[in-house]
Amino acid sequence: MKRFFGMMLAALVLLSAVPARAAQKDTLRILAIGNSFSWNAVEQNLAAMALSDGKCAIIGNMYIGGCSLERHWNNARTDNRDYSYRKINRYDVKTTKAKVTLAEALADEPWDIVTFQQASHFSGFPDTYEPFLTELIGYVRARVPAATKLYWHQTWAYAKTSKHKAFPDYDRDQDKMYGMIMAASGKACKEHGLTVIPCGTTMQNLRGTFVGDNVTTDGFHLNELGRYGAACTWYEVLFGNVVGNPFHPQYVTEEEVAAAQKAAAAAVRKPFKVSKIK
Q1: 182 — phi, psi (to 5°)?
Q2: Of 107, 151, 240, 278, whose CA is between 20 and 30 Å from 81?
Q3: Looking at the predicted structure, is the pLDDT value of residue 35 above 80?
Q4: What pLDDT is stored for residue 278 in this prediction?
Q5: CA of 15: how far to CAs of 11, 25, 48, 257, in Å?
Q6: Does the domain made of 26-269 have the CATH classification 3.40.50.1110?
């Protein structure tokens, strides 16, 4: 109960800084069909960043840890109650509902944007994408408004010291893994007309700064800085102009905030190629 009231108080503080006209603006409704990597990217900072800049967003995340495109498609076609549906309202207050079907989540809001992604361990292997991505896109298209836009959430390469069991599939080489993810995700976006959210490139851009290879907690899930950088990438794609956004995460320094914003902006300009950040 105390935690709930604390969340509400934080939301009210954020709202007090939002211009009154924000409440009158259209709310952007975003649904991620993902896993822990979408949890890293959209559940911690994105709604707060929008609020701090006078924008409104409703964010849904259909979460299953390590979920692949194949599993998402199997869940869709069997109407499996396999998801934890995490929903963040326009005031940055999150609720979680267990045992939700994909069809139920798609019907919950008139989503403006739906995103897809592959499990991180399969992200560099295009043969793991199909036919599941094609089928999943068709399933979603039949259940959302005609104007809904479809995006691809690009995942990131593991840390150089990662102990992830799939890292040997990439010869334990971060650069090789990054290159394979770029090739596979680029192919998927081109074939399906998906707009990329290039979090994988943001992480590589950040790793090239003073931050170094320090954007993960366990070699693959993002730490506080990494999560902020991923949210910056989503913000730049969905709202534009993340550089100068006033939201400041508690455990990220001012220098890191600036680096993450610049890394994300550069990634959106060049989504499949590393940029040098000054």
Answers
A1: -60, -45
A2: 151
A3: yes
A4: 85
A5: 6, 14, 10, 22
A6: yes
Give the integer Cα–Cα distance in Å for 169 and 173. 9
CA dist 147 and 65 (Å) reads 29
In angstroms, rounded to a whole number, what is the distance separating the alpha carbons of residues 113 and 125? 25
* Residue 254 to residue 258: CA distance in whole angstroms: 6
Question: Residue 78 — very low, low, confident or very high, per pLDDT cuts 50/70/90?
Answer: very high
Query: Is the distance from CB of 193 to CB of 152 less than 8 angstroms?
Result: no
Are residues 123 and 240 in contact, defined by beta-carbon separation less than 8 angstroms? no
Domain extents for the chain? 26-269
- Helix, strand or coil, per DSSP, at residue 151: strand
The residues near 142 (Cβ < 8 Å, ≥ 6 apart) are none
As given in the structure block, the two tokens for residue 105 are 């989540």
Q: How many CB atoms lie within 10 A of CB 60?
A: 23
**C-alpha span between 255 and 248 (Å, rounded):** 11
| Alpha-carbon gap, residue 146 to 114, rounded angstroms | 12
Cβ-in-10-Å burial (0-12, 13-18, 19+) of 145 comes to exposed
Burial 6-36 (b: 16+ CB within 10 A, else e): eeeeebeebeeebeeebeeeebbbbbbbbbb
Which pLDDT value is given to residue 60? Answer: 98
